[in-house]
Amino acid sequence: MSDIRPIKWVAIGTGTLFAVAHIGVLGHLINTTKTPEVPIINLPRGDYSSYKIEASKDGYSIEYKANDPAVLNSERSLDLDKNKKGFFGGNSNERRTEYRRDEYTMDGTRNLGGAGLDSEGKSAKEIECIVADAGARSQGAMAGTSIAAGIGVPAVIGIPYVGWLAAGWISLLGGKIGSEAGSTVGSVFNDC
Asked: Does residue 51 sit in the same domain as residue 102?
C-alpha cells in the first residue's frame, strides 16, 4: 500500500498542474479577445488615388481622394513688340502681352472656365437637347390636337351614346401623335 500513495500524489499533482495551465491559457484567450482590434480597411488603389490616415487613442480618420491630381495646369505667355511701316509711309507700333492659363482633366479635355457637367452629370449640349425636345413635343402636341379636333371630332361626335367619348379619344390620340412627330422634327432641326 505504500507503493500506491506516491503514484496517487504524483497523478494529483500532475492533474492540478494541467488544470492550472488550462485555466491560465483560457484566461489569456479571453483577455486577448476583449482588446480592440485594428480594423482592416481595403482602400481602392489606382494610378491617381491618394489617402491619408491619422490614428490616435480616440479613434482614426481617413482622407481618401480617388482622382488626385484631378487637373493639369498649363501656363503660356506671349510678349509682342512690333513696329510696322505702312505702304504709304504710315507707322504703327504694336505692343501686346498675352497670358493664358489652361486646366486639363485626366482624359486631356480642356476646362473651358465653367462646369462642363451639371449636378446630375449632364453636359450643356444634353441640357439644350432636352429643352429643345420638350418645346418640340409641346408644339407638336398642340398642332396634333388642333388637327384632330378640326378633322376627326366632327366625324365621330354624332355617334349616339359614345360620340363625346370618341371625340376625346381622337383629341388625345392626335396630341400623342403630334408630340412624337414634334420630337422627331425637333431633334433633326436642333442636331440632337
From this structure: yes
